Amino acid sequence: MSSKLSTSNSPTLEEPASKRRRARRTLLIILALLTGLTTLEIYFLQKDVNAPISNNIAVLALFNIILILLFLMIVLIVRNLVKLYNERKSKTLGSRFRTKLIIAFLVLALVPSTLLFFVASKLFSYSVGSWFNIQVEETLHASMEIAREHYSYLEKNALSKTRKIERFINTNRLYPIEKRNELHSLIAQKMSEYDLGAIVVFDSAPKIVDSEIHSSLSSSKIIAQLKDIILNFGKEDSNLEFQSTTLGNYLAIALPLTQQGENGLRTWGYIVTLSPFSRAAHSKISSIQNTYEDYKRQSFLKLPVTANYYTTFLMITLLILFSAIWLGIYIARGITVPIQQLAEGTRKIAEGDLNFKIDVQVTDEIGILVESFNNMTDELNESREKVEQINEELKAGNIELESRRSYIASILENIGAGVVSIDKRGRITTFNKAAEQILKVSMQEVLGTRYKETLSPAFRLPVRKMIKAMNGQQKEFWEEQVDLRVGENSLSLLVNIQALKNPGWQYMGIVIVFEDLTQMIKSQKIAAWKEVAQGIAHEIKNPLTPIQLNTQRLRKKFYEDKKGFNEVFEESISIIAQEVEGMKELLNEFLRFSRMPTPQPKPTSLHKLIEDVAAMYSGHERLVKFRKNFDPNITLMQLDAEQMRRVFINLFDNALDAVDEDGEIHITTRMTRKPDKVRIEFSDNGGGIAPQDRDKLFIPHFTTKNRGTGLGLAIVNRIIADHNGIIQVQDNHPKGTLFLIELPMVVTVKASAANESAFSKTTSLPF
């Protein structure tokens, strides 16, 4: 059964000043005792002036010094033993080990010291025997021993009977009140069986619990005498197990009665027995004892010598024993004190005090253990500081993440575009407020559900079509404008679908971002038609002015001068016809722009298409040089050949109008870093385009030339947009203009092994 060991009452070092004062006080006490004892001993020895030892003051002083030192040692050892007993009783850590070590040292010293004591005593006895009548002394001594043994025998016999009764009472638990009859029966039986004079049981008061007294004895007198024995029981010795006394012809034996309580054994009463005792034998024993004592008193000179020598032998023996005990205490303290400190340190560390240090100064293996413990506390303290620092960083990181999460959530709630995220199982995980407003669906109805089951077909079907197209082309991004009907409203949405992957490139789902372009498209159309109307009005107004002027001229000439009318008529009619033809060409261009057919892409060689258009301008009147740099990896593309031919014709026309004599036109094709794009760079070294005109370059009826309708580049932009491409204009260095065209690469490519590996690793979306 394990017990919790206490680490309290650990030995501590006293202050030096206090130790010095106590040492001086102890020295004065020793000197006073030495002087007093020596004077007293000389006084008693001077009663017999013939004693040779009476003048040996030096021997007496030495003897007293040894006696005092031995007494001090006994006091110190007893003090430590009592302290050890208290520590063991309070289960102080190390007390058991200290007890075992002291007992071991005591046993090791007891055997040789006891043997030495007896051998020395024997040798001294033979020496003293030549001085005194040894035969008489031995006879008296033997007689005395016989008397004592006889008395001891009677006492042991009486004690044995009493113990048997006591054990029977404890074994059968006869102390409760309800078992008084059984107790009385036992007393009566044992009194008859053991031939006793009386058996009396007292409680701890003491009051009589039960008794059985022989009829020849006076009950009141006997009970009073026995009660005095109980009252004086253990007063002189608290550890007394029994007490024996002679009462007339009887030997009285008193034993405590105990029972097991909550705090251990407790004494609940006493049992006293009277065993018959022969008065004649007692008288003879007393006579022998008196004779022996008379002999001793007459042998006064023998006593001091014998006592001194025996005391010396005893002191030497005790000195050895007590030295062994002291050595055991000292060694045990050197081991247990650091262990107690270690236990205290362990408790402190368990409570969280990692700054605790052990200051016990030892240099042996225990010192290594203490040093290791201190190193461990230092490392634990450093580790705790690191953990606290990391914890603070984590808290700060969590706060930042929470702030960013709240910020992103706020953005999602307030952004004008609808955002819907779908996990890899097809369940909707995000559905913001804009998505609710655009799709007219409540967020609570769709979150956590499968998008195939909750989203309306008007939105779901175009999205599924886009996802299938993205999977079919092994892309992770897709953008498309979708026209759909939500309720009674027709909407135009720009839908963007992006695959979601974690840092390990494992597929997590998709995010759909869509923006309502309905109002913007309407505004753009109105603005575009406004610009077109203004351009058409301006272009129509220009020829109307000369037509009006020539009509007025004809009218005036008709009435004023008939002779010159024919010449004026022909000239005016020619001008009017020319201006009407210009207006007709303008209207035809506008009709072609407004009626641009949907592209019909077919496998087409991009490079051959450019070569054919360039060949049309090879005999141009200007000596223009054509520079071509084609990417050999590009072969066939899905293009509408007729529309793309018109694109390149417009670009060649503009470039030829911009360059001077001996100008250069460069055409370059290449693959972009994105594996699904082809870039076409069309540049010249002409005069370039003013920065303020670049944004207007693709607007219908905007032109920087004196002639033309301003629809050419607008048509180019429209064709490129219909092919899902983009066109941009930049400055060409050192001079000129650079048109950049990017078209989707729905092409047959001479793919390298790296490209094939990249395509093989593309993850298809499970939608």
UniProtKB/TrEMBL annotation:
Q: What class of enzyme is it?
A: transferase
- Which residue ranges traverse the bilayer? 27-45, 57-78, 99-120, 309-332
Limits of the Histidine kinase domain = 535-747
Record-annotated PAS domain positions = 404-474
Descriptive protein name: histidine kinase
> Which reaction is recorded as catalysed by this protein?
ATP + protein L-histidine = ADP + protein N-phospho-L-histidine
Q: How does it sit in the membrane?
A: Multi-pass membrane protein
Concerning InterPro entries, the annotation shows: HAMP_dom, HATPase_C_sf, HATPase_dom, His_kinase_dom, HisK_dim/P_dom, HisK_dim/P_sf, NtrY, NtrY-like_N
Q: Which domain of life is it from?
A: Bacteria
Q: Which residues form a coiled coil?
A: 373-404
Q: Where is the HAMP domain?
A: 333-385
Where does the UniProt annotation locate this protein?
Cell membrane
Main site of residence? membrane
Alphabetically sorted, this entry's keywords are: ATP-binding, Cell membrane, Coiled coil, Kinase, Membrane, Nucleotide-binding, Phosphoprotein, Transferase, Transmembrane, Transmembrane helix, Two-component regulatory system
Q: Which SMART domains match?
A: HAMP (SM00304), HATPase_c (SM00387), HisKA (SM00388), PAS (SM00091)
Per the UniProt entry, the Enzyme Commission number(s) are: 2.7.13.3
Organism ancestry: Bacteria, Pseudomonadati, Nitrospinota/Tectimicrobiota group, Nitrospinota, Nitrospinia
Q: Which GO terms describe its cellular component?
A: plasma membrane
List, in alphabetical order, the Gene Ontology terms for molecular function in this entry: ATP binding; phosphorelay sensor kinase activity
